[in-house]
Design brief:
The complex is a heterodimer of chains A (about 325) and B (about 325).
Chain A lengths: L1 H10 L1 H19 L6 H7 L1 H18 L9 H18 L4 H25 L4 H19 L19 H4 L1 E2 L2 E2 H20 L1 H11 L1 H6 L4 H27 L10 H11 L11 H20 L5 H28 L1
Antiparallel strand pairs in A: 1-2
Helix pairs in contact in A: 1-2, 1-15, 2-14, 4-9, 4-12, 4-13, 4-14, 5-6, 5-7, 5-12, 6-7, 6-12, 9-10, 10-12, 13-14, 13-15
Chain B lengths: L1 H7 L1 H19 L6 H26 L7 H17 L4 H25 L4 H20 L13 H4 L1 E2 L2 E2 H19 L1 H11 L1 H6 L4 H27 L10 H11 L11 H20 L7 H19 L5
Antiparallel strand pairs in B: 1-2
Helix pairs in contact in B: 2-13, 3-8, 3-11, 3-12, 3-13, 4-5, 4-6, 4-11, 4-12, 5-11, 8-9, 9-11, 12-13
């Protein structure tokens, strides 16, 4: 029984994270009374949405293999956020049109990344490292106000805030209306559609995939574009939630999103990973951040614990899989 | 044959682009080609250049290290704390550098001995060390550093600043090392094919351990230079440093797929970035466009390289 349990933990990352989550909930509930209240549990979900969308984007991109990674994802978020902010807040464009243009900006950034990666075949790390600088710089440039300094924009129309601040029965709007449907859709796309199969095949071996007439280039191109759109959407939600667009909104989120995707069992070598796994990792990290905050631990330690968990889970995985490979 | 190789080499491309930039900036601004400004550029290059020695070796083995900036941050904090708590200057500097070596060895243990992918280990370390640096500093700066501690940044030997000496000596030695020492050749072998190297009797674990530990030492030295030059330790000391070093390294022709690259190339890569950002400032180009230009430069130069070499594969 125990052996079977441990084996399932070793083989199935989502199950591993689920057990971890339960353990964490128990510990936090004992230490902090207000942690396991329904209000807190529902309310904390909104903090996982934006980073969650970025982690989904990284999951798909990393699965595509060949060193697939997107270091520019946080910068795309910054740029999209500034596009929305500048259009709506400074130029007085209708907020709906501004939002759509912001998301399209994200998609276009993804198109640029995808073009260089799949059609010019430049390693993704180099492409997205470069575009990270470019998008960050563009975000700063369009943030420049009439006195010549890059400034945040905060004067959104009031109606805009429902995306990031409205709740229904304590459930945040962006969780039920955007995040959950999108997670279901991406899960469906990855595990049930031809595109999903193509993606995994491409990540496992590009050569084999090409010989099996998988449109490898188009598949790779597509994941970067999806990634850009997800980052644009995350920008929309974030600017609405914090009621402000800043050119450094996405700073540091790229590496966090990659960390969460990898924690969710996405193989950094490509060809392996699931939306469910990444979703579990997002839930674990969101609950952890919330618990640490309620326990009065400095928010500086949020990323620190993320690092410990990332390395710890990699070690646990090695120990568990060694144990069971020797049995068989 | 040899000549063709040189013409095709990345070092030459980067070198020519740089000469072009230098000519352009010299013609556009009379302040560019002055002894003082050149010294400035070289000083700016030194910390990134020294760190890129380690990064180049790591990327040649097919790995990556995103914890470089965080390690540099901890080195800076250690050095600053030691110096302001009564340790003699030389001991503070050595302590800081040793902390770099120790943290590099931690990376090395996870990667070489446990076999965890480098990106995962260094991502984890990056986050963890960043939090540690914040905690040690407690949100404050260390500003009142005694002058002697800043020797690695401000000192001079024969009227040439110490950081420039350090960069020249380290680059010269490790270029020789990579080209002629067995261990250096093994690093390329591991990067070309880990399996083939292992089967040929190369102790691949030892090679990987050496590379990541040495990189830690280089970040330590780079940290001492940064603290020396800035004279201040902040919570964000070393932020984004890793990406600058990686950018300089890949710009200099080190293949992200491993097995290919030179330290001289990486130095040229970091020089190119430094010349560019210095020249742009002198031309009064808004600082905000710097990232834009650097990004386009890296992508453009790699794209040209990829297209140029495509026919051969």
């Amino acid at each position: 029984m125990m052996k079977k349990f441990l084996k399932l933990m070793a083989v199935n990352r989502s199950f591993f994270l689920f057990v971890f989550l339960i353990g964490m909930f128990v510990v936090f509930s004992f230490i902090i009374p207000e942690f396991s209240t329904i209000y807190n549990v529902l309310n904390m979900t909104k903090y996982g949405v934006e980073i969650g969308l970025l982690a989904f984007a990284e999951t798909l991109i990393i699965i595509s293999g060949g060193g697939g990674i997107d270091l520019s994802i946080g910068s795309i978020l910054s740029l999209s956020a500034m596009v929305i902010g500048v259009l709506a807040g400074r130029l007085g464009v209708n907020i709906v049109i501004a939002s759509i243009l912001g998301i399209i900006t994200g998609g276009l950034c993804g198109v640029v990344n995808g073009f260089f990666v799949s059609f010019l075949r430049i390693p993704p790390l180099i492409v997205t490292l470069s575009t990270m600088y470019v998008y960050d710089s563009l975000a700063l440039l369009i943030a420049v106000d009439k006195w010549g300094n890059p400034m945040p924009v905060s004067n959104f129309p009031y109606g805009y805030y429902f995306i990031g601040q409205q709740t229904y029965f304590n459930i945040p709007f962006q969780v039920i209306a955007i995040f959950i449907p999108l997670a279901l859709m991406l899960h469906f796309v990855l595990s049930k559609t031809t595109f999903g199969r193509y993606l995994v095949a491409t990540g496992n071996s590009e050569v084999v995939a090409r010989f099996s007439s998988v449109p490898v280039r188009r598949v790779k191109f597509t994941v970067y574009v999806i990634g850009g759109f997800l980052a644009g959407l995350a920008a929309l939600i974030m600017t609405s939630r914090i009621a402000s667009a800043r050119p450094d909104l996405g700073a540091g989120l790229n590496l966090q999103a990659i960390t969460i995707a990898v924690l969710g069992g996405t193989n950094i070598m490509g060809g392996e990973g699931s939306i469910l796994g990444t979703l579990m990792a997002i839930v674990v990290i969101t609950a952890l951040y919330n618990g640490l905050q309620l326990a009065g631990i400095s928010s500086i330690w949020q990323v620190g614990t993320l690092g410990i968990i990332l390395i710890g889970s990699a070690i646990a995985n090695i120990i568990l899989s060694k144990k069971f490979s020797s049995v068989e | 044959m040899e000549l063709k190789k040189i013409i095709k080499s990345r070092e030459l491309t980067v070198g020519l682009v740089m000469i072009g930039l230098i000519v352009f900036f010299s013609l556009s601004s009379e302040r560019f080609l002055t002894t003082n400004n050149i010294k400035n550029i070289l000083l700016q290059v030194s910390s990134i250049g020294v760190a890129s020695i380690g990064m180049t070796m790591i990327i040649i083995t097919g790995g990556i290290d995103v914890s470089a900036g965080s390690i540099l941050g901890i080195v800076a904090v250690t050095l600053g704390k030691a110096a302001t708590n009564g340790f003699p200057a030389w001991l503070s500097i050595i302590l800081g550098i040793l902390v770099g070596l120790a943290l590099g060895s931690v990376n090395a243990s996870f990667i070489a001995l446990l076999g965890i992918p480098p990106i995962i280990v260094t991502l984890g370390m990056m986050s963890l060390l960043r939090s540690l640096a914040y905690t040690f500093l407690g949100g404050r700066w260390i500003a009142s550093l005694p002058g002697a501690v800043r020797w690695m940044g401000l000192g001079k030997i024969l009227n040439v600043p110490v950081p420039i000496w350090l960069t020249i000596i380290l680059v010269a030695y490790f270029s020789y090392f990579m080209r002629y020492r067995p261990l250096g050749r093994y690093i390329y072998a591991v990067g070309n094919s880990l399996e083939a190297a292992r089967v040929s009797g190369v102790d691949t674990k030892r090679i990987l351990f050496f590379v990541y530990a040495l990189a830690g030492l280089m970040y330590g030295i780079a940290g001492a230079i940064v603290v020396g030059r800035a004279g201040i330790v902040q919570t964000n000391t070393g932020n984004n440093f890793e990406l600058q070093v990686i950018a300089a390294t890949v710009l200099g022709g080190t293949s992200i797929l491993g097995g290919k690259g030179t330290i001289v190339g990486s130095i040229l890569g970091s020089l190119l970035v430094a010349v560019l950002s210095n020249g742009l400032i002198l031309l009064n180009v808004p600082a905000l466009t710097e990232g834009l230009i650097i990004g386009v430069l890296i992508l453009g130069s790699v794209a040209i390289d990829v297209i140029k070499n495509r026919g051969e594969e």
